[in-house]
Amino acid sequence: MPRDNSAERTQQIRPVKYAKAETGFAWLRLIGASMVVVEHSFPLVDPQRLTILPASWDLSPGYFALMGFFAMSGFQITDSWARDASWWRYAAKRVLRIWPPLLVVVMFTAFVIGPLVTVLDAGEYWTDTATWGYVVHNAALYPLQHLLPGVFAENPYPWSANGSLWTLPMETTGYALVLVAGLTGLLGRARAGLFALLAAIVVLDGFLGATYTFQGRGGSLLSVPVGAMVAFGVAFVIGMVMHRYHGTIPLSRAAAYAGVAVYLVVNFVPVLQPCARIVLPFAAGYGAIVWAHHWPRRLARYDKWVYGSYGMYIWAMPVQQLIVFAGVRNSYLLMALALPLAYACGLLSWQLVEIPTQRLRVYLRPQPKSPRNARPRDSVSGRGAHRRERTGV
Questions:
Q1: How far is the C-alpha of 295 from the C-alpha of 297, rounded, in Å?
Q2: What is the pLDDT of residues 56-73, one digit of tens each?
Q3: How far apart are CA 329 and CA 316, in angstroms?
């Protein structure tokens, strides 16, 4: 049998001790999911309006939040590899984290919401291959399928039953990137190579030119826009770099605020505006990771209320489309109704789907090779284990 070098790799890479930041990551993810709900409240009512801010500002809080999401994922998923450098356990953890809630939402959308709101009769809906394809394709993530037969066809935004799912294949691609980087040593002694990777993806992003209004050049790969995937990939790799150089790269609040200020200045100065999209992932990514590490510790007492961000994110658009289907045509009213409902869906997803499936990680614990290498095990119901499960690592 080939020798399992997982323990040796883990010791070489060394996970980052960032327990005090986990509350911050959770809160920022919830705030970011809420910002996405706010942003979606406008195009779902008026497809010509993409953001809560005036179009002339060329700013999207939701897009900024997504950049922060990807940077936090890059940081936390890299830490997951550092804690246990086993490719198959790493892959299994990613499956347990992302797929069960996704399966529930796509099946509920296709089998419960769809029959209630489709303009087709029941026979047409259930015999249409696209009804079943919606579950199969979205469960596989590649390629995504946005349309269900006749579902929300008379809504102002009829092009997707759940447009939020479009970022999940990109997130999964980031997981694969961490796996490849881990297996090739880029997360260990060859970590300096991460800067070359970051430089390459920044150059590619500059060529493809994706923004929140344009998915970029390069077409699509299995329904995933290549330009947008690369743009979010910049933020993801920034998170990877910040993890591997944790303790070397200063986590300065002043620098984080300065980064956002620079982004705003660049965005509003016409001659500098083309550079804004390059500054964005650095400002959002660095800022998100810094703010997570400086988040008030006293808020940890409310942790159980903030770990539904993933469920909130993937349930929000079907909830919003249903509200619009019921006749709401005011973006601010849609926002006011959708935020608490999407938040409730997120909490239910966390309690009923995510916690039970995360408990299966007990079967993925690495076996220590000797007492010297053994570490105290977290109980699956204990604080330490649940913190890592809740943050998605």
A1: 6
A2: 999 999 999 999 999 999
A3: 17
